[in-house]
Amino acid sequence: MSMWSSRAVNSSELESQCNNKYFYSNIVSDISDHFSQFCILKSVKDKVKVNKFKVRNFLQFSADCFNTEVSQVDWKAIVETNSCNVNKLFSSFYNKFNKLVNKHVPMKIISNRKAKQLSKLWITQGLRTSIKIKNKLSASGDVSKFKTYRN
Fold first, then answer.
1. Same structural domain for residues 31 and 72?
2. Are the C-beta atoms of 29 and 9 separated by less than 8 Å?
3. What is the mean pLDDT of residues 112-137?
4. Which of 32, 53, 105, 150 has CB atoms 3.0–4.6 Å from 115's, for a disulfide?
């Protein structure tokens, strides 16, 4: 079938041909002397994987508890079991230390909006606070306070 051909379509053919990247044809009807033409295109858009942004949650972090737990680890046993291979030694150290860090300072998924805010390093926490206040004044309808704060 050439790309610009015209012909009538039955429903079973339509179902079987829809697995291709595109399908086109004419619809024959008794309503008009002209044929209706159609084209079905399959979307080739790949599904975009949404990246989830993660940051460390330091809200409940206690340096004393973390230091105590790090000091309780038997580092000599880790060194003795992997003393021949530096790569294994580092991997053991890294895995143990990373488990402790994840226990005391867990990762937290943040929203895309918060990730976008954090990516703009020139907007400090003070500026964010000022922006919130300005937006609240704008929404409140008090034009004089808004203009004073804005300027």
1. no
2. no
3. 86
4. 53
Examine residue 146 and state whether it is found in any structural domain, yes or no.
Answer: yes
Question: Residues 6 or more apart from 24 whose CB is under 8 A from it?
Answer: 3, 37, 38, 39, 40
In a domain, 115, yes or no: no
In-domain check, residue 96? yes
Could you report the per-residue pLDDT of 18-65, keeping only the tens digit for each? 556 667 777 776 676 677 777 777 766 655 566 788 888 888 899 999
Domain residues for the domain of 129 are 120-150
In this prediction, residue 7 has a pLDDT band, given cuts at 50, 70 and 90, of: low
Which residues are bridge partners to 108 per DSSP?
55
Element (H, E) at 2: none
**Biggest alpha carbon–alpha carbon distance for the chain:** 91
Residue 114 lies in a domain: no
Confirm if 47 and 55 have CB atoms less than 8 A apart. Answer: no
- Other C-beta atoms closer than 10 Å to the C-beta of 87 total 8
